[in-house]
Structure formats: structure tokens, C-alpha cells
Write a structure and sequence with these properties.
2 copies of one chain form a homodimer.
Chain A: E1 9-13, H1 36-48, E2 53-56, H2 71-76, H3 85-94, E3 100-106, H4 112-125, E4 130-135, H5 140-144, H6 154-172, E5 180-183, E6 188-190, E7 200-201, E8 206-207, E9 222-225, H7 230-239, E10 242-245, H8 250-266, E11 275-280, E12 283-284, H9 288-301, H10 304-315, H11 338-350, H12 354-362, E13 370-371, H13 373-385, E14 391-395, H14 401-416, H15 429-433, H16 443-446
Helix pairs in contact in A: 4-6, 6-7, 7-8, 10-12, 13-14
Bound molecules: flavin mononucleotide (2 copies).
Amino acid sequence: MPTSKKRIHLAAFMNAGPMGTVGWRHPEADPGFLTAEYYTSVARTLEAAKFDLVFIPDSLAVPRSLGGSFAPAVTHGAGTPRLDPIPVISIISAVTSRLGVVSTSSTGYSAPYSVARSYATLDHLSGGRAGWNVVTSFQDAEAQNYGQPALPARPERYARAEEFLEAVTRLWDSWGDDSVIADRASGVFGDAETVHAIDFVGRHLSVQGPLGVPRSPQGYPVIVQAGASPEGRDFAARWSDVIFCSHDSLESAVEFYADVKRRAADHGRDPDQIKILPAIAPILAPSRAEAEEKHRVFERLVDPVAGLSRLAYHINFDLTAYDLDGPLPDIDVQGVQGHYREVVERARRTGMTIRQLGSWYGARTEGDMLGSAAEVADRLELWVEAGAADGFMVIATQVPTAFAEFAEQVVPELQRRGVFREEYEGTTLREHLGLRRPERGEWRNRARSGGAR
Amino acid sequence: MPTSKKRIHLAAFMNAGPMGTVGWRHPEADPGFLTAEYYTSVARTLEAAKFDLVFIPDSLAVPRSLGGSFAPAVTHGAGTPRLDPIPVISIISAVTSRLGVVSTSSTGYSAPYSVARSYATLDHLSGGRAGWNVVTSFQDAEAQNYGQPALPARPERYARAEEFLEAVTRLWDSWGDDSVIADRASGVFGDAETVHAIDFVGRHLSVQGPLGVPRSPQGYPVIVQAGASPEGRDFAARWSDVIFCSHDSLESAVEFYADVKRRAADHGRDPDQIKILPAIAPILAPSRAEAEEKHRVFERLVDPVAGLSRLAYHINFDLTAYDLDGPLPDIDVQGVQGHYREVVERARRTGMTIRQLGSWYGARTEGDMLGSAAEVADRLELWVEAGAADGFMVIATQVPTAFAEFAEQVVPELQRRGVFREEYEGTTLREHLGLRRPERGEWRNRARSGGAR
Ligand SMILES: Cc1cc2nc3c(=O)[nH]c(=O)nc-3n(C[C@H](O)[C@H](O)[C@H](O)COP(=O)(O)O)c2cc1C
Ligand SMILES: Cc1cc2nc3c(=O)[nH]c(=O)nc-3n(C[C@H](O)[C@H](O)[C@H](O)COP(=O)(O)O)c2cc1C
């Protein structure tokens, strides 16, 4: 086994609800996404295949992407239902012993004390396997479920996120690693000298502390982010241990990778301590032609309006207000979430009608990974060697078969090539990812305030 | 088996952290309260004993009960650590199949969309076993962890709680029981006609809806509350399915029971659809004398300052500012949480010094249930027959042995007497408790607005 090759990390992307636009409709899809068994059985498959982690995204609303109405999302099952991801990763942690468990919480609609406590709790209960995907959210409907008239502008969202991360990491550091003594003879439980309030006072939020939970096994649960805009990249380069992204081409993936690692180095961080995982949605078949045929099954299931609903949700722009058989109107791509700009630009370049865009986008799969296990493994190795990725986030087109096929076909192929583990070497998610455990006080190196607050 | 007797319901009170003032110090206490195994193993014991539910309380701060400092709480392990209860009940639900799982969330420091979603999720994932203990919180330190200078006054807390419950129940009702169609052939996932926004606009909070989670197995997860003040009793009588309380005497328990059931009837509810469960902390031994000896083990472990810290936390009044060997100062019992007024009154009546009160309160066990299994069973039956209880919330003085002893000794005794189930008759928590499943729209019968909003 060639040991000089760079090892690949694997994350699995699973909604707490049906997958994608038509995931629930696919003939192989398990309809049990409101039951515990659905999640625990996939988790067992992923752990047997030695995945680094399972990741659950989140959205705090039924999308109101078309004409301000939630009805299309309900009718098509697009972007809804979405369960609370925290109970989902909790139950997954209870039936696994190595798999990392990562879920998403927004800095816009929750409080740092609550988020710090949830992930510290999960880190304790899972024995050091928890991670938090930090999002600033992007739908007006989410703001409206939390008493706000509309989504705040991106700079304001990231300003709040910055304070939020500083407060959360300081809460995680409010107990030292040795603060719990628990000496029954003397009756001393904690070393109060080493437990500190944080007395954080920001412009957007304030927290007194200390946290009611001792420092957790990983020091900080793994911090994940997926910023794509310049603000988002800077934020991720400072705070994140893992970065998810989505690219339509190898070129844009390489640009993103180099840019974020350079930003990290500029902030004084070791770029190797940030793992970048582009999203891919492999479609496996004995040959590329058969994989394309398999993909056509999806295309036939996708209603163009469901595709436009998903797109409207991602780009916050409703195309159904225009003639579906006409060309794309002007869309201000600066206002669009970073990763999705490429989508709009590509559609314009290829001259699609709005209806064609809906069909294409509804059935679109990330990373163009269609083919045999060997072909997909070739592409994964190519991306890593080209400097586009430290690993991948595998999106299942439908659950559970897409994960099962990846586990049965691609994982052994990667293991044969010596680029993926055959056994877990450690027990914590940081160990799987090759990330060191942050010392107490690490937040000073990551916060924009640098500890000056 | 005499079947005419009223059946008793049993809940188990378990902190997401050490028990009581000295629970961690007790020689039989499992020190693993930061691990999953601690909770899952107790849950298995409780399910084997056919308990209705396990209940996890919550507190959103390290108590700053003495001189505004959190140090005594850390030093004594009194009221801290406290994990997030939602992951705890999630993992419990994953290793059990019948036991009800109830945790606590405050209406003061979270948002209705989040709370509605968490418990609806748990209700789906557990197959209809979830419950929410509604609290309005009572410590300044909690407010200060959420950007507020101090705890709002009780009327304001209950005014917000009222809006919160109306919003949450309406979110639970935003999908109908038949809204999910999931017809693969036609591609129709949901019946959008039957899914409604709630457009709730209150004085304290606003929520648009609909919830991103379909109506859950129990319709509404079981609603639990423990109000003791007149405001709290009125709120509980309208909203609750289950009411927890704490009484030092049978007389006060009878008064409370009659008052709350009458209030429920006044609001047009069937009083039998509200289950009142006083807290008890049994200490079991072959005889009462031996049980008292066993209790003395606790008393010796309790530092009077730890006891005063616990009391200060419960009554929001710091007695360490006074001479510990002097008498109680004047305490405004109207400002004190209802259940704890009795404690203050009793201490004054018996002429304890502050130090004696600290020792006594730190080792105090609810309900005066010391003795053999037969004696404890006698008292439980007496309380039920006297009209003080529909069942009990069993507090473990230490985990796991106190639960194990109750399960091994008292449960079989109650079963022999025909007052406790030998097998679960149903699968949902509502079925265990003999509570009917609320129809969609039930919130109108419970909300003060009566649906006029
Ligand atoms: C793989 C991936 C997963 C994401 N998951 C979520 C999510 O669960 N919830 C969410 O609100 N945003 C999610 N996002 C959006 C990002 O958090 C971020 O807002 C987006 O990439 C735009 O970047 P920007 O904030 O810099 O504009 C995800 C993005 C990617 C690429
Ligand atoms: C058995 C029991 C359990 C309770 N659990 C909690 C809890 O977990 N968190 C909390 O903030 N308050 C808890 N409380 C306090 C009640 O929610 C309530 O605030 C208290 O009984 C005072 O009533 P009042 O609000 O009417 O003054 C509990 C009370 C009792 C009796």
C-alpha cells in the first residue's frame, strides 16, 4: 500500500428529512425519514465504512421560495420536512462508537449559551465525536419564524456570527481541563479558582458565563463552516476546522482551496489544520453511460417547478414570476450565496430557458461524479492531487442506497489505493480528521478581537 | 388483583448532572454523569420497571446563589454541571421503546419555533413518547447568560409563557394529521391546502410558521408544568397534561391537588385529563429506623454551605450574608417560588439557625418517604386515596442505586396491590398516562386568547 499518498477524509451529507428535490420520490428511497431507524441504520453503514463523520444540514422554515408561498415546497416535498438535527445526531451517537456527528445551528436565531451547551453536551456524551456547522442562514422565512421582518444583510449576519463564535469558544473554555476534581473524601467537586465567567459584552449579544458544562473531550467540538462570499471565506479561515463547499468545476474548487488556505495562513494558522471538503453526489454504475442513464431516472422525476423552488431557495430569487419558456432575467449575482453564483452563470452561458434550468437544477448532482467506482475514485484522487480538496462530503441522491453503494464500491477502491483508512486510528473526530485538540485560550488566535475584548 | 383501585403513575426525576447537593459524593453514586452510559443504563432500569417516564430538569446557569458568586456551586458540585437535557433524552429514546422521555425548556430564553420543532422531532423519533416540561426559570444568572440584566418579574414571565405556549401549540397544529401524502406516482408530497401558517403576533414574540415538521404521533407532545404561585397554577391548569409539585405535608398536597383540578374544571377541561405528580425521594431499608440511619449518611456528607447554596438557588435569597449561627432574617415569602415557601415557613416555625437550616435543607428529601417498601407503598396509596396525587415523581437521592432499589422493591409491591401496571398497555406516553390525543385546534381550548388572536 503506497503510504506517501495524502489520505482522504469522508463526510456523509444527510438531511433530517427527505433528500434534495425528489429524494422522497426515488424508487429506492426509504420513506422512514420521520423515524429513528432511518437515521441509525444509515449511521451504522457509515461507521462500518469508516467515514469520518455524518453531517446534518438545517433550515429553520418551510421554504417560501415561490411567490412568497410555502405551498410549492409542501406539495413537492422540496426543502421540507426538516427535523431538529440535534436529536438526530444524538440518537446517531448512541448507536455508534467512532463516527463523528456534526449538525448545523444558526448564529442568527439562537443564543451562544444554548449552542455552546448543546455541542459541549454532545461532545461529552459521544466521547469526543461532536461538531458544529456554523451557518448565518439565508432565507427571509427563517427570520420571520423568529420575529424578524426579513433576513439581515450579510455583513450584519457575519458581524453577529463573529461575536457568537467568540462567546461560544470562551464558554467552552470557561472550565479548564482539570477543573473537575470530584474528591469524595474532601467534598471538593470543582476547582473554582480555574473556572471563569466570560463577561462577554458585544454589540449583538452578551453572555456572563461560566458554562454549566466542564470542558469537553475535544476541547472544542469540531467547528465547520461553508462560507463562500469574501466575508464567509474570511470567517471560515479564522474559525473553522473543516470547510464544506460546492463547486461545479475543478478550477473553481482549486481557486477556493488556495484562497481559503492562504487566508488561514495570513491569520497565523497552520493551513493543514483546516480541512476542505467539497460536496459530491456520486452516481455509481458499471460505466459512465450507465451512470448517466441512472441519472435520467432522477431527471424524469423532477418537476421543473420543484427544481425552480429549490433554486429560488438557494439563490433567494423567484424565477416563476417570469415566462418559464423565456430566457433568464437579470439576477444580481453579487447578492447570491457564493457557491450558487456559478450555477446562475452557467445557465446564462448555456442559454437555458427558465423551465430547462428548473429541470436541470432539480436533478443536478454536485461534482459531476458519474461512473464506475474506479472512475469516481480516479476523480477523487485527481481533486486531492490538484489541490482542490482534503476529502469530500458525499451527498446521497437517495437514502440509503446511494450511501450503501458508495460504502460497498468506492470505499474499498480508495482503501486499495491506500488513500482511505481501513480502521479508525483514534476515537475522537479530531483524531479522525488529523486536527489537534485546542488548548484552553485558543479562541484568542481565532477571534477578530484577538482577545482584546 | 383488586382492579377497582386507582392506578398510580410513576415518573423518574434525573438531573443531567449529579443529583441534589451531594449526589456525586455519595458512596453509591455513579461518577459517570458526563457519559452516555450513565443515562442509558438508568433508562433501561426504569423501562424494565414500567415507569411512565423519565424527566430531566434544567437550569441555564451555574448557580450564583451565594454573594453573587458561582464559586460555591462549583466547589460543592451543587447545581452544576448541567448538560443540555435534549441530547440526553434523545439518547435515552434510542435505547428504549416504551419509556416516556420528558425534558425541560424555558420559555424565557428560547424561541417557540425552536422549542416546537425540538419536541415534535423527539415525538416522531421516539414514536410518540416525548414530553416538554415548561418552565419560566427563576435565577438572575440565567437571564445574565442571555443578555438580560436580571430575571423579569413573575407576571411578565408568565405573560411571555402564555404567548409562547399558544405559538408552540399552533405550530404543532400547522400540519394536519393527514397532510403528508407522499404519493410517488403523482409526485405530490404534501397536501398544501391543509398546511397553515400561524402568523402569530404577540407582545413578546412573533412567529410566521408553518413548522417544518408534520404533526407528531401524540398530536401534542405531553405538556408538563410545575407552577406553584397563583399565576403558575392557573397557567398549569389551562395548558398542562401533567403537573409536578413538591410538598412537605399531605395537607398541602391535598390543597394543591384540589385547587388545580378545580381551576382546570373552571377552564372547561376534564380534571381527570390532568395528572398531578408530587415529588418524593424515598429512602428504602428494612425498617423506618434503618432508613433514618441511611439518611444520616447523607446528612454527614452535606456541608451546610452547600445546603444554603441549594436553598439560595431555590428561594433566590442568600442567607450566608447573615450570622450562620443566628436566626433566620425576614424573607419575603411572597417573592419565593411557591413550593419553597413551606420550607421557609417550617424553618421559622421550628426555630432553626441558618447553619442548621443549611444542613437540613441540603439533605432534605421530598415527601418524607423513609422506610420499607411496604411502608412507602402504604404512603403512596394513602396520598392517592387522600386526593393528593395521581402518581409520583421519584427523585433518586443517588443514581443509580436509589432507582434500582425502588424498581426492585417498591414497584413489585405496588403491582401486587394492583395499583401499578405489570406491562405497558400502549406505546405512547399519552397512552401510559391515560391522556387522550389532542385534536388539531385543541390550543383554542387552552389558550387564554381562546383563539381570538
Ligand atoms: C455543503 C454546504 C452545506 C450547507 N449547509 C447549510 C445549512 O445546513 N444551513 C444553512 O442555512 N446554510 C447552509 N449552507 C450555506 C452556507 O452556510 C453559506 O451561507 C453559503 O455557502 C453562502 O456563503 P456566504 O454566507 O459566504 O454567502 C451550506 C453550504 C454548503 C456549500
Ligand atoms: C418537581 C419540580 C421540578 C422543577 N423543575 C424545574 C426545572 O427543571 N427548571 C426550572 O427552571 N424550574 C423548575 N421547577 C420550578 C417550576 O418550574 C416553577 O418555577 C416553580 O415551581 C415555582 O412556581 P411559580 O413559577 O408558580 O412561582 C420545578 C419545580 C418542581 C416542583
